[in-house]
Design brief:
Blueprint (H helix, E strand, L loop, with lengths): L1 H8 L1 H13 L2 H13 L5 H12 L4 H27 L13 H25 L5 H8 L12 H8 L3 H28 L6 H31 L2 H17 L14
Length: about 260
């Protein structure tokens, strides 16, 4: 009851913060994440170089991830659930609220959040405590991604048709949620207020959504078709070379088992 009361008292500010965090930083991060993964289409070595650049942050990486990715995602998702549970459609402000896009926006948000929770566990295991890894992550096949064997472990993690199908659903739901959310954010912030402006913005956002969906499809194709053995040999050579040149420090925890 207190949470609902707080939301009602600060609804104007919370809704605007909710809408903007869905685009910046969450949406921007998704685009960067897809672009980095799309480099796999060039070559496993290109993808591995990009992953090395990310992990060059070393101890700062978890801090950056929490501040700019995980906490904004949690905020956006939690407030999204509060908005859905409140049942406040705001049909006066949002005349499109009863249409299909309104329903899909909420459904895609729920699917996207569930997918993100599973995706982070599947690839990274959520936490890195020994007991957690031994008793939860390993039995449930989590933490499949190893940064210093990026393409090969990504390919192995998504080698199942079921897993690839779930990723396709989750990623495409996320793409729709971002594209349609970009349009609704413009309305929330008063960027397009007239019906004509909203129609033009809708076409732009739809085009943006199609472009991102094609990028996402390319990523999924690249992961599904990667030559795992060739990729691993390339990654191992790169790792040994970079360790020898002291560009990176040896870190067996970030590598796959031999």
């Amino acid at each position: 009851m207190a949470a609902t009361s707080f939301f009602a008292r600060h609804e104007f500010f919370i809704r605007r913060l909710h809408s903007i965090t869905g685009v910046v930083p969450v949406g921007v991060y998704m685009l960067v994440h897809l672009a980095v993964n799309a480099s796999l289409l060039s070559a496993p070595s290109t993808f591995q170089k990009n992953v090395y650049r990310i992990h060059s942050l070393e101890s700062l990486l978890p801090i950056v991830e929490w501040i700019f990715v995980l906490l904004p995602i949690l905020f956006h998702a939690i407030i999204g659930v509060v908005i859905i549970r409140s049942g406040q459609a705001n049909t006066t402000t949002y005349p499109y609220a009863a249409n299909v896009r309104y329903a899909l926006q909420r459904a895609s948000g729920i699917i996207a959040f569930a997918f993100i929770i599973w995706h982070v566990f599947h690839m990274h295991g959520w936490f890195h405590f020994v007991a957690w890894n031994e008793n939860v992550v390993e039995p449930l096949y989590g933490a499949q991604f190893k940064p210093f064997n990026a393409a090969s472990t990504l390919g192995i993690a998504m080698s199942s048709a079921v897993v690839l199908g779930l990723y396709t659903i989750g990623v495409m739901a996320s793409v729709y949620h971002l594209a349609n959310g970009l349009w609704t954010m413009g309305i929330t912030w008063g960027l397009w207020t007239s019906q004509a402006a909203q129609r033009r913005a809708l076409r732009v956002c739809a085009g943006f959504g199609v472009a991102v969906a094609l990028l996402a499809a390319g990523v999924l194709y690249g992961v599904a078709t990667v030559d795992i053995q060739t990729a691993k040999k390339t990654e191992d050579r790169m790792y040994e070379s970079m360790v020898d040149s002291r560009e990176i420090r040896p870190n067996p925890a970030k590598r796959s088992a031999e």
